[in-house]
Write a structure and sequence with these properties.
alpha/beta; TIM Barrel; 8-stranded parallel barrel; two-stranded antiparallel ribbon
């Protein structure tokens, strides 16, 4: 059975706002909460970018039954994987086993800030594979030393672990990501519904779970919603470009090229439930098990939750 989530869009919301949205989403019947993990927001028009792991701990403590997932964390440059192993284990404990660790190869925008440069994509994939091996080794609770081509752990052991370890999702769509998933991951995370990627994934993990997201700018005033839809214009060039741009001015330049018609092809805009129902239904029918909506419109939380609960959710598969 498909599950539906709400992504806490940290680029437009501070941690207190995300806590309010998390509680409302749980009360409104969403099955899971997603959260991105960035140092910078994408655009200068964005307002926030809090530390994801502090926010995750607070959300885990403030909710009772809704699942949590990172969409996604890069465990190789800005973070060392040993720290992510520890952070994920702690969130899993606070949430009483409701947490899935979503991992990806990252974007230059947030990873370059520690001054380690930005590796080419093949190296990033090699680093991600090593990072997952380190995380899994530390989750055994044993003393761990790991010397890979890119990453090293020296004589480390985690002393606080949950009884049930988080599952690991791997973000991507190409052969390299699918190979990492085959060797080291449990679940697939895609940046948008793609039946071809799901079919390839099923060859690797026949019983595996697929996560995806659908961006929307909900507001009863279509002009207001359309303006807010441009908060997602950074995604127009796709991940091959998004992973490489180094700064917010670069994404601003991309977003300036996206007109109203283009952004409405990227983002479900307004308060008509029909296209939302159709888009999510097609995602589910093409094999996506967990579908999150990313609300980049005005955060009219109570009204949005009422609209979702009355006009959308009852009509989803």
């Amino acid at each position: 059975m498909a599950r539906y989530g709400f992504t806490l869009f940290s680029e437009l919301n501070g941690p207190r706002a995300m806590l309010d949205q998390a509680r409302a989403a749980e009360e409104g019947g969403f099955d899971f909460l997603g959260m991105s993990d960035h140092f910078h927001p994408w655009l200068s028009r964005h307002t926030d970018s809090p530390f994801a792991w502090s926010a995750l701990g607070a959300v885990a403590a403030a909710t009772e039954s809704i699942d949590l997932v990172t969409l996604v964390t890069c465990p190789t440059v800005r973070y060392h994987p040993a720290l992510i192993a520890q952070a994920a284990a702690t969130v899993a404990l606070i949430s009483d086993g409701r947490f899935t660790l979503g991992l990806g190869a990252g974007e230059n925008l947030s990873e370059h800030v520690v001054g380690r440069g930005w590796p080419p994509v093949d190296v990033r994939h090699e680093m991600l594979a090593e990072a997952i091996q380190i995380i899994r080794a530390l989750w055994t609770g044993e003393w761990t030393t790991f010397r890979g081509e890119h990453l090293t752990v020296e004589d480390a052991r985690l002393h606080t672990l949950p009884d049930e370890l988080p599952r690991i999702g791997v973000a991507g769509s190409g052969p390299a990501a699918l190979e990492i998933l085959r060797e080291h991951g449990d679940e697939l995370i895609t940046d948008g519904p793609d039946p071809d990627v799901v079919e390839q994934f099923r060859d690797v993990r026949p019983d595996g779970t697929v996560w995806t997201q659908v961006p929307m700018a909900w507001d009863p005033d279509h002009d207001v919603a359309l303006d807010h839809a441009h908060n997602f214009a950074f995604s127009a060039p796709g991940w091959k470009v998004m992973a490489e741009l180094p700064n917010i001015p670069g994404f601003d330049a991309v977003a300036d090229l996206v007109d109203d018609d283009m952004v409405q092809d990227l983002v479900l805009t307004g308060d008509d439930p029909a296209p939302v129902i159709d888009t999510i239904t097609r995602a589910v029918e093409s094999g996506h098990d967990n579908v999150a909506v990313v609300q980049v419109g005005p955060q009219r939380t109570e009204e949005f939750q009422r609209w979702w609960g009355e006009e959308v959710r009852p009509h989803l598969p």
